[in-house]
Amino acid sequence: MASEKTTLSENIQKYLQKADWKSAIAEMEKLFAIDQDPIVRVRIGDARQKLNQKPEAVKEYIHAADLYAEKGFVVKALAQYKLALRIDPTSKQAQQKMESLHSHTTVAENKIEPLEFGTLEPASSVIPLFADLTQEEFNDFTKRMVVHTYPAGKTIIREGESGSSVYVATRGTVGVSTMLQGKKVQLAVLQPSDFFGEIAFLTGKPRTATVEAIEETELLEVPEDELLDLISKRPRIKQVLQKYHEERVKNTLEKVKEVI
């Protein structure tokens, strides 16, 4: 089976490089038949978009989200529902399923999401934040999120620059670093489910660290203007964010002490 998966994966890459989306989809369907990895459905959805088959792409992203949710990956599921809604903002199915994530066992019981092979436990999981929100607050918060994909090496936020959006990593890893006495200090490697960017928003100061994509990375962003509007309507959300800020400051100070 391993050799079959390898052959299929190689065929898929070959067809993708040729922009032969139909052949790539056919091979991905074969791959999914032997390995029900949700990312395969995501890639099929991407290919459907290339073919301008938007309704089919929406179905694929919802399918992938459902699979992620079944496995306990709430944040990954959220990202795929958001992708479906980006294509079709009127999709009641995607919206309702996204809202139902608030009552998912992972959120309701404030659990750490399952760890995929080769990944570490998130340093600052967004799950406790979701758990602290009411259903209405969760709906409003997630509705304002925007999905972005960054290639490896791309700077997402840069130390010293202005900007107050907050982010949740959903796929891939990002490195967080700062300059201290002319030396680059690695503060953290953030995993899927990690939450970052809240410090600049809460303090009104420039970014305190640089965040770069280590590999191709997918993020959910809550833009600054959306967050300000959200908090004006639901002030308690700022209190929840403040808890994260205090914990982040504590962890950063511990890292700095290690290199002084």
What profile does the largest beta sheet have?
4 strands, antiparallel
**SSE order in H/E notation?**
HHHHHHHHHEEEEEEHEEHH
Approximately how much helix is present in the residues? 55-70%
From the N-terminal CA to the C-terminal CA, the straight-line distance is 51 Å
Which segments are poorly predicted (pLDDT under 50) over 5 or more consecutive residues?
none
What's the alpha carbon Rg, rounded to whole Å? 19 Å
How many helices? The count is: 12
Q: Assign the CATH topology of the domain at 121-260.
A: Jelly Rolls
How many strands in all? 8
Specify the CATH homologous superfamily of the domain at 121-260: Jelly Rolls
Shape estimate: globular
- Beta percentage is 15-25%
**Helices and strands: which structural class?**
alpha+beta
Strand order of the main beta sheet, please?
A: 1-8-3-6
Text of the CATH class of the domain at 121-260: Mainly Beta
User: Would you tell me the overall average pLDDT?
Assistant: 87
CATH architecture of the domain at 121-260: Sandwich
How are the SSEs ordered, and which strands pair?
Blueprint lengths: L1 H16 L3 H14 L3 H13 L3 H18 L2 H14 L4 H9 L4 H4 L18 H6 L2 H9 L2 E5 L4 E3 L8 E6 L2 E7 L2 E8 L4 E2 L1 H6 L6 E4 L3 E6 L1 H10 L2 H24 L1
Would you give an account of this structure?
By secondary structure, the chain is α+β, with helices and mostly antiparallel strands. The protein has a domain at 121-260: Jelly Rolls (Sandwich), CATH 2.60.120. It is built from twelve helices and eight strands. A four-stranded antiparallel beta sheet has the order 1-8-3-6. Strands 2-7-4-5 form a four-stranded antiparallel beta sheet. Strand 4 and strand 5 (183-190) form a beta hairpin. Helix 1 (2-17) runs antiparallel to helix 2, helix 2 (21-34) runs antiparallel to helix 3 (38-50) and helix 4 (54-71) packs antiparallel against helix 5 (74-87). The model has no long low-confidence stretch (mean pLDDT 87).
